[in-house]
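Protein in question passed on here:
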Amino acid sequence: IYGVTGNSMYPNLKPGQHVLTIRKSKSLSLLRRSDIVVLNNPENIVDHGNPFIKRIVGLPGEHIKLIRSTIYANGTPLIEDYLAPGYEKWTDRYGEQEWLLSEDEYLVISDYRPEGRDSRKFGPIRSEHIVGIVWLSWRPFKIRNHA
């Protein structure tokens, strides 16, 4: 169980929510594009080593290209219907980027595209960084004492 901090997956996951993951040892063969994963901070580049929650947009062996607000996988634009209205058109402050992923690399990106700290900043991640797939999320609740 991990807690969501920051706005990188907003509005799909909000700060304060909790996520339950399927551990990596059982889930790597299940990884698909658009899955949300918890990953260890690659090389502790940003955020002082805290785990990240990101969405997979690039799979091993793929050629991924980001142009303006569109992500292309092997030349085909991705349909990202999981993005909230208004979030599907974002300006990439990192400019046009592209990667040819190795057989053990994934490209991960935030749902909050304008400000996300993700593969646009730290590059592709290897499977060893992935903790697990997000399986369930919920907001914490408070129990009131009616005594």
About this structure: The helical segments are 24-27, 119-122. The radius of gyration is 16 Å.
